[in-house]
Amino acid sequence: MSRFFSEKYSNLEAYTPGEQPKDMQYVKLNTNESPFPPSQKAQEYAAQAAQRLQLYCDPECTVLRKTFADTFGIDEDQVLFTNGSDDALNFAFMAFCDESHPAAFPDITYGFYPVFAELNHVPYEEIPLNEDFTINVDNYCGINKTIFIANPNAPTGIPLSLEDIKKILESNPDNVVVIDEAYVDFGTESAVGLINEYDNLLVTQTFSKSRSLAGGRLGMAIGNAALIRDLNTIKYSTNPYNINTMTQAAGTGTLLDDEYSRRNCAVIAENRAYLTERLEKLGFIHTPSTANFVFAKHPELDGGELYRKLKERGVLIRHFTKERIKDYNRITVGTKEQLDILLNKIGEILEEAK
Questions:
Q1: Are 81 and 219 in contact (CB under 8 A)?
Q2: DSSP code, position 315
Q3: How far is CA 269 from CA 213, 262, 272, 274, 334, in A?
Q4: For the whole prediction, is pTM greater than 0.90?
Q5: Which pLDDT value is given to residue 1?
Q6: How far apart are CA 236 and CA 66, in angstroms?
Q7: How far apart are CA 320 and CA 73, in angstroms?
Q8: pLDDT digits (tens, 9 = 90+) for 253-264
Q9: Fewer CB within 10 A of the terminal residue: the chain, N end or C end?
Q10: Burial of 98: CB neighbours in 10 Å, binned 0-12, 13-18, 19+
Q11: Closest CA to 197 of 160, 226, 223, 168
Q12: How far apart are CA 270 and CA 284, in angstroms?
């Protein structure tokens, strides 16, 4: 840090993104990206949009917003597009949290939640998961805090039911409940259908995972019109032009080719079942994930050691050093070919450990 860096951020511990090494060609199963390219229509729309980059992008995302609303049966004023869902989550911390409305989220979840809380000087509580890494819903009932829950949770992949989400919403009527659905499309029921029933529900989603646009940086917040107006106030006070022209076009093309994304999600769900079955045969234990990743550990292998040995062999997975989960690794579900390479390398490592 320089001597000019503000003291108010002196203790800020920044989020650590997944590795993006360039030293060799890796089988990349560490950042939950889609193994499939963007849809052809998304690519064509983005290429056409590149011809008008001399002009500012549409701050209202008019075409994209209408296309999304038509696709998901909501009103256009019930969705806000952001620069990745991280942007939407940060806006939510800014808009709905303060000294009188502290934040609450699980102790093992998406690592950006505590960072956003610290960045925005928001007091927060980290609520421990159960021993089996499930969320104890009762711990969130009537706590009168702004609640952030990833559903399914990350890095565990374990989902909550809509009935559990309703219970949390109904017991905290004067606080916003943010349901982060970054991985919802791989086997979890979305809470978007509840936004007209609960005025304190905000859902965030992303095009990064199921829609193959991680590099496009496109996310959204979905809720009643009043909540979206609040977030727009934050957006227009920070960066009105937060979604570039090519990304807006790619997002529109993706939505108009929604069947392509759905087919890819189905393949990933099949590959997830294949991966978990093969890992079980190798002696691994894993959580019941409904995401595009598997959270697993082996009783005879240190989690960090497995991560390092796989990296040496050209395969990247994600290891976390937090005490409760340091024996686990998060493995992105890729193509069958990628998974076979991973499994073969794991077999080699297990054989060496004998």
A1: yes
A2: E
A3: 19, 11, 5, 9, 10
A4: yes
A5: 78
A6: 20
A7: 38
A8: 999 999 999 999
A9: C
A10: middle
A11: 223
A12: 19
Quick count: other Cβ atoms within 10 Å of Cβ 69?
A: 17
Q: Phi/psi of residue 176, each to 5°?
A: -75, 140
CATH of 18-36+259-353, one of 3.90.1150.10, 1.20.1530.20, 1.25.40.530, 3.30.830.10: 3.90.1150.10
Tokens 């390092």, residue? 308
Give the pLDDT mean for 125-139: 98
DSSP class of 125: E
Contact yes or no for 189/164 (Cβ under 8 A): no
pLDDT in tens, 136-167: 999 999 999 999 999 999 999 999 999 999 99
Distances, alpha carbon 56 to alpha carbons 49, 90, 166, 218, in Å: 12, 24, 41, 17
Strand, helix or coil for residue 138? helix
Domain 40-256 has CATH 3.40.640.10: yes
3-state secondary structure 15-76: CCCCCCCCCCCCEECCCCCCCCCCCHHHHHHHHHHHHHCCCCCCCCCHHHHHHHHHHHCCCH
